[in-house]
C-alpha cells in the first residue's frame, strides 16, 4: 500500500499512520507532510523505525527551504517517481 501524508504531522494522527505501516508499504510525505522528516522532530524516531520505505517529494522539501534539515532516512523523489509509486500500489491511503 502507498501511504501519502499531505498535512503537517502536527495536524495528523501520526501514531495511527505509523502503526499501519507494513514492510511491503511505501510512505510518501508531500506538501506540509514533509515536515515529518525534520531532524530532531518529535515524529522522526517513530517513523524511521517503521518497516515501510520512506520518501519525500523533493519539490515540496525545496519549496519549504528545509532540504538541509531533513533526515537521511528518507529518499527524495520527483513527481515521476511519485507516479511510479501510484502505479506500483493499487491500494493507497491519503492522510
Question: How would you summarize the topology of this molecule?
Answer:
Layout: E1 2-5, H1 14-20, E2 26-29, H2 44-48, E3 53-57, H3 58-63, E4 75-77, H4 79-88, E5 92-94
Parallel strand pairs: 1-2, 1-5, 2-3, 3-4
Describe the structure in your own words.
This protein has 95 residues and is of the alpha/beta class. A 5-stranded parallel β-sheet has the order 4-3-2-1-5. 29% of the residues lie in helices and 20% in strands. It has a single domain (2-94), classed as 3-Layer(aba) Sandwich (Hypothetical Protein Ychn, Chain: A), CATH 3.40.1260. It has helices spanning 14-20, 44-48, 58-63, 79-88, and strands at residues 2-5, 26-29, 53-57, 75-77, 92-94. The mean pLDDT is 97.
Which tags fit this structure?
single chain; about 100 residues; alpha/beta; Hypothetical Protein Ychn, Chain: A; five-stranded parallel β-sheet; 4 helices; DsrEFH-like; Sulphur_relay_TusB/DsrH
The CATH class name reads Alpha Beta
Q: What is the number of E strands?
A: 5
Mean pLDDT metric: 97
By CATH, the architecture is named 3-Layer(aba) Sandwich
Low-confidence stretches: none
Family: Belongs to the DsrH/TusB family.
Keywords: Cytoplasm, Transferase, tRNA processing
Protein name: Protein TusB
Organism: Buchnera aphidicola
Describe what is shown at a glance:
The chain is of the alpha/beta class. It has a single domain, classed as DsrEFH-like (Hypothetical Protein Ychn, Chain: A, 3-Layer(aba) Sandwich), CATH 3.40.1260.
Amino acid at each position: 500500500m502507498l501511504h501519502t501524508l499531505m498535512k503537517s504531522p502536527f495536524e495528523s494522527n501520526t501514531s495511527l499512520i505509523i502503526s499501519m505501516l507494513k514492510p511491503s508499504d511505501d510512505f510518501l510525505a508531500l506538501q506540509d507532510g514533509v515536515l515529518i522528516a525534520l531532524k530532531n522532530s518529535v515524529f522522526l524516531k517513530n517513523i524511521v523505525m517503521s518497516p515501510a520505505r520512506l520518501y519525500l517529494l523533493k519539490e515540496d522539501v525545496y519549496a519549504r527551504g528545509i532540504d538541509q534539515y531533513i533526515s537521511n532516512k528518507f529518499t527524495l523523489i520527483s513527481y515521476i517517481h511519485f507516479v511510479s509509486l501510484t502505479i506500483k500500489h493499487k491500494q493507497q491511503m491519503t492522510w
